[in-house]
């Protein structure tokens, strides 16, 4: 059995991680939970039948020696906690965003030594996304030309009452980092690396120090271009991706997760997914555990796990400087490599 620990017992752990782990109970066992709030940790432990609860990550790692740790804490804690787990000999599965700067991500990758840290981008793992990538790789759709990537979500003022939300220091960024990154990551998995980005970001209505909406125009290394819009100001919520190829158009409309029925293709006869797997934590966890059992680097770790954070870094660098940004600009001597606001702020 793969021994699993869950760090952070908030809503995402309860709604997504524990159900996913329940589906893998034949090969994964939750042996401990960690939360700085002892009462909350104990309540979570009792609710889910976990043997032990801790208030300290170090103590849990020393006593339990887990094989895999799920990190479900606020973004500013991710890098330190992930490195601590890797150094203790555990693999890590970390909620998005993986951390709050490219510098932190590179420190995470440097800490891997027979252990790996993967970030949660579950939309790559539904059968629709897998089928689309297979069609693209096989040339059935032709060459990608243009794309739309829209995250039109709604988060009210009360959502930002959590003290870590809405600041560069603790959340790392606004919806481009914490919300739209799911759609962005799926777009990148289809179109590959970007080359140039021109962006705007604004604080239009919400009580935040980051942005609450952003828009970007992107050129990819392969020549395709995309428009990317991200908002938490949209009462009718939708996640929408459109990919136009020389021979077909593929669209996805959903909100927080999709099935095959949420995809359309023109012409429709090109679209024949062999199965119907929803995008979910469960789908990605199954893939991660397969990699663990084989001792292979898992998907969305290392360079692949860095891809979406790199995109968001470029978006903020362009929006805050008012200039186009090349992917090649994001080197260690660039201030945005170290802070997503580049020390400028919005």
Helix content: 25-40%
What is the CATH topology classification name of the largest domain?
Answer: Dihydrodipicolinate Reductase, domain 2
Rg calc: 20 Å
Using the 3D structure, state the CATH architecture of the largest domain.
2-Layer Sandwich
The low-confidence parts are: none
Q: How many beta-strand elements? A: 14
Span between N and C termini? 48 Å
Shape: globular
Strand order of the largest sheet: 13-12-11-7-10-9-8-14
List the helices and strands in order. Answer: EHEHEHEHEHEHEHHEEEEEEHHEH
What is the makeup of the main sheet? 8 strands, mixed
The figure for the number of domains is: 2
The level 1 CATH classification of the largest domain is Alpha Beta
Share of β-strand residues = 25-35%
Question: What is the number of helices?
Answer: 11
What would you call the structural class?
A: alpha/beta
How would you state the average pLDDT, rounded?
97
- What is the fourth-level CATH superfamily of the largest domain? Dihydrodipicolinate Reductase, domain 2
């Amino acid at each position: 059995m793969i021994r699993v620990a869950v760090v952070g017992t908030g809503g995402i752990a309860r709604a997504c991680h524990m159900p996913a782990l329940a589906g893998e109970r034949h090969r994964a066992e939750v042996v401990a939970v960690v939360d700085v709030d002892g009462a909350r940790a104990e309540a979570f432990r009792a609710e889910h039948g976990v043997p032990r609860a801790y208030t300290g990550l170090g103590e849990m790692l020393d006593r339990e020696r887990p094989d895999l740790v799920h990190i479900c804490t606020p973004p500013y804690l991710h890098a330190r906690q992930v490195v601590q787990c890797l150094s203790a000999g555990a693999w890590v599965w970390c909620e998005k965003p993986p951390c709050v700067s490219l510098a932190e991500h590179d420190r995470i990758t440097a800490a891997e030594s027979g252990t790996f840290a993967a970030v949660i981008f579950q939309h790559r793992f539904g059968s629709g996304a897998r089928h689309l990538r297979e069609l693209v790789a096989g040339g059935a759709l032709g060459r990608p030309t243009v794309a739309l990537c829209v995250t039109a979500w709604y988060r009210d003022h009360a959502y930002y009452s959590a003290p870590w939300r809405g600041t560069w220091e603790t959340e790392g960024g606004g919806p481009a980092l914490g919300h739209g990154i799911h759609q962005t990551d799926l777009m990148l998995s289809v179109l590959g690396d970007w080359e140039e980005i021109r962006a705007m970001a604004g604080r239009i209505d919400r009580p935040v120090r980051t942005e609450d909406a952003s828009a970007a125009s992107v050129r990819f290394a392969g020549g395709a271009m995309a428009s990317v819009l991200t908002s938490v100001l949209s009462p009718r919520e939708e996640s929408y991706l459109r990919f136009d190829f020389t021979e077909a158009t593929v669209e996805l409309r959903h909100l927080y997760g999709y099935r095959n029925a949420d995809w359309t293709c023109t012409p429709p006869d090109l679209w024949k997914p062999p199965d119907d797997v929803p995008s979910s934590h469960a789908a990605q966890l199954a893939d991660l555990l397969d990699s663990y059992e084989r001792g292979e680097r898992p998907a969305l770790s290392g360079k692949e796990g860095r891809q979406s954070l790199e995109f968001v870094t470029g978006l903020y660098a362009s929006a805050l400087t008012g200039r186009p940004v090349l992917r090649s600009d994001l080197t260690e001597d660039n201030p945005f490599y170290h802070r997503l606001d580049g020390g400028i702020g919005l």
